[in-house]
């Protein structure tokens, strides 16, 4: 490549498909390393430079391509600036001119390692690394767990999500040690940060009772509209130019963490707006509005089960993903089409229990809990697996249960014992024994002699009121007597 490209220049990466030889522009990459592309034409040229083609993204991309040495999906890579692409588009991507800008994965990675060996060893920036390649959770610094008073068993259900750079899906108990040596019991979400030596540092996100939107956030005061948007949808609804230090301006999306009540920021440069959402094409206007932090209506998306649906999507800076909402939309708009989809799925599915089982989608997350690979394997095989901390409970309290696929009814059944080993199965939804009282009180309003006057939800595994709950109820008017209903 004969052109000197500055790190500050906007760049585009072109690739040549190994099968048809066509040259296309890279617009993104999924978690498995599969790239998304778009035709580099004069009409969409401007949108191509909205892609975050920074050094970290290129490094991650070329590492993935280097893994395909035996069976490459692309045979050429060409990196250039906007000015050069404009010239090449006008001459119909002349192959001789294009060749001047060829770049190879091996040479690029070698150059990166030469310029910054520490970054090469640690995998580059956290955001790009965590997006495309999971972190090795076995490298979590155990001293960090002790420092924040984290029980490993509380963290385990969330590790898969955290390995991809996300915060724990739910809050866990924290007991951090202060400089004075005193520990303060609290709760919050946690995430991981990869260090130069390969170890993983714990990043706590502490819970606070309510959002504080009236103090400066990274050097900027939110306006009234920002505050209203955050209260209504948890997202500011626009890109805000933050100033974490004097003179440093960082355009970012700002969202409110729904669990911790704390504000979170995500730099705009760390987000690439895709061309499709759930198989629905995004127009240039939709992509621009999403990139501006707005909520956008996307029609006729396709769910994992093949059903059509409409929804509003918006970038959530707190969870680094798209939020989906459906307020005011006709949820039955595609009823006839979805009925036809279901009919065709039944017709195309051969008989037999094992084939029916394939139609029941096994999710990565069930009732708020990330499933381990082993749990997913059991469910895919039609077997029961034990899952802790689910939130079927109406009051939001977690419970434990054995879960088994029901292919005939296309749903999951819950049991308090292992149905594969038990001689007799009980009702369809049965929490584990330690959660039986909790779910009966919280969900159904059932009581026994110990719980008949308790007004607040029981905690996971709680069988009777705490001493504090007894004292609180003693101050209330006496309740009517009731029989044992659990």
Automatic annotation (TrEMBL):
Ranges for domain DUF4099: 136-215
Positions of the DUF3945 domain: 274-326, 363-414
Biased composition (Basic and acidic residues): 336-346
Region (Disordered): 112-136, 336-358, 423-486
Polar residues composition-biased segments: 117-133, 437-451, 460-469
Composition skew (Basic residues), residue ranges: 477-486
Top-rank taxon, per record: Bacteria
Signal peptide start and end residues: none
InterPro entries in the cross-refs: DUF3945, DUF4099
Protein name: DUF3945 domain-containing protein
């Amino acid at each position: 490549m004969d052109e000197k490209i500055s790190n500050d220049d906007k760049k585009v990466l072109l690739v040549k498909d190994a099968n048809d030889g066509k040259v296309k522009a890279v617009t993104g990459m999924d978690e498995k390393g599969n790239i998304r592309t778009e035709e580099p034409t004069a009409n969409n040229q401007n949108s191509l430079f909205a892609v975050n083609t920074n050094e970290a993204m290129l490094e991650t991309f070329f590492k993935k391509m280097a893994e395909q040495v035996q069976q490459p999906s692309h045979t050429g890579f060409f990196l250039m600036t906007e000015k050069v692409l404009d010239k090449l588009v006008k001459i119909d991507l002349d192959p001789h001119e294009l060749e001047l800008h060829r770049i190879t994965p091996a040479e690029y990675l070698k150059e990166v390692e030469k310029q910054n060996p520490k970054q090469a060893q640690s995998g580059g920036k956290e955001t790009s690394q965590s997006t495309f390649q999971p972190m090795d959770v076995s490298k979590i610094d155990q001293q960090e767990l002790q420092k924040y008073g984290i029980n490993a068993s509380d963290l385990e259900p969330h590790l898969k999500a955290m390995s991809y750079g996300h915060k724990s899906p739910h809050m866990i108990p924290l007991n951090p040690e202060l400089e004075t040596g005193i520990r303060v019991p609290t709760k919050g979400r946690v995430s991981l940060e990869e260090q130069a030596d390969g170890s993983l540092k714990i990043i706590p996100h502490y819970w606070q009772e309510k959002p504080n939107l009236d103090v400066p956030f990274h050097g900027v005061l939110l306006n009234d509209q920002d505050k209203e948007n955050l209260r209504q949808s948890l997202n500011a609804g626009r890109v805000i130019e933050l100033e974490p230090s004097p003179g440093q301006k960082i355009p970012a999306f700002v969202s409110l963490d729904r669990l911790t009540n704390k504000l979170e920021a995500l730099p705009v440069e760390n987000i690439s707006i895709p061309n499709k959402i759930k198989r629905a094409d995004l127009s240039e206007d939709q992509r621009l509005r999403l990139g501006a932090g707005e909520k956008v209506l996307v029609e006729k998306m396709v769910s994992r089960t093949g059903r059509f649906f409409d929804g509003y999507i918006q970038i959530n800076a707190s969870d680094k993903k798209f939020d989906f909402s459906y307020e005011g939309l006709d949820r039955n708009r595609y009823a006839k089409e979805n009925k036809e989809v279901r009919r065709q799925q039944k017709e195309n599915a051969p008989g037999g229990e094992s084939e029916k089982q394939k139609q029941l989608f096994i999710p990565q997350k069930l009732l708020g809990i990330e499933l381990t690979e082993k749990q997913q394997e059991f469910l895919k095989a039609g077997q029961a697996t034990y899952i802790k901390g689910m939130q079927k409970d109406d009051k939001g309290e977690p419970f434990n249960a054995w879960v088994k696929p029901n292919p005939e009814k296309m749903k999951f059944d819950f049991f308090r014992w292992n149905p594969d080993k038990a001689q007799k199965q009980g009702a369809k939804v049965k929490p584990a024994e330690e959660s039986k009282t909790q779910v009966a009180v919280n969900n159904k309003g059932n009581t026994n002699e110990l719980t008949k006057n308790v007004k607040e939800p029981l905690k996971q595994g709680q069988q009777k009121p705490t001493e504090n709950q007894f004292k609180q109820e003693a101050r209330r008017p006496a309740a009517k007597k009731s029989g044992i209903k659990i």
